[in-house]
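# nightly structure sweep
# worker-07 picked up a monomer target from the shared queue
# config: single-sequence mode, recycle default, output format = structure tokens
# input follows
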Amino acid sequence: MNKNKKLIIFGKGELAELSNYYFTNDSAYEVVAFTLDKEYMDTDTYLGLPIVPFEEVENNFSVADYEIFIAIGYSKLNENRKRKYEEAKQKGYTLASYVSSKSASWPCLTVGENTFIMESNTLMPFCKIGNNVLIWVNNDIAHHMIIEDHVTITSHCAIGGNVLVKEQAFIGLNSTIRNNIVLGKGCVISAASNVVKSVEDFAVMMGNPAKDRGVDSRTINL
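# output follows
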């Protein structure tokens, strides 16, 4: 594979390690370095590559020649990932996205920046996926679905057609989402839930059929 793009990964945890593996083995990107906030740096290298302070990253790697991927998980309703995504954009970087070659999609799929789609996902025609979205493995994402920015979809979820998933929503393992509904901003769909009606912003849904637990999702730790 022709490696004609240069990439810096923000992070040093499991998602950063996974991202490095996927980009290296299944993309046109060559990972050349990692970056972290200076206060969290305890070494100068990771996975055999240099780590540079995020505060100074543009001094070492120009925004014209390098892209960044923010490899942060979904803690605090994806707020940490969202904040660092915005900081990288403010520096002027293009943020890289990855769609696994081992997932099934169509040419009409649209994907924003810093979105990461792992293997064995089925994405039907006319799906629109926003910026900074994380989609793990083995999900069925039906036609005409819109996923807004900073969303996490875990694994083995089945989502019907014409569903709108609003910003910073979280969909847990083995969930089922009925067609023609809206999942509100920052809502949390607990594992193995069966959602059959639209969900309010920051609601926590659980069960089969899923019911609103009366908890503000901003008060829980994912």
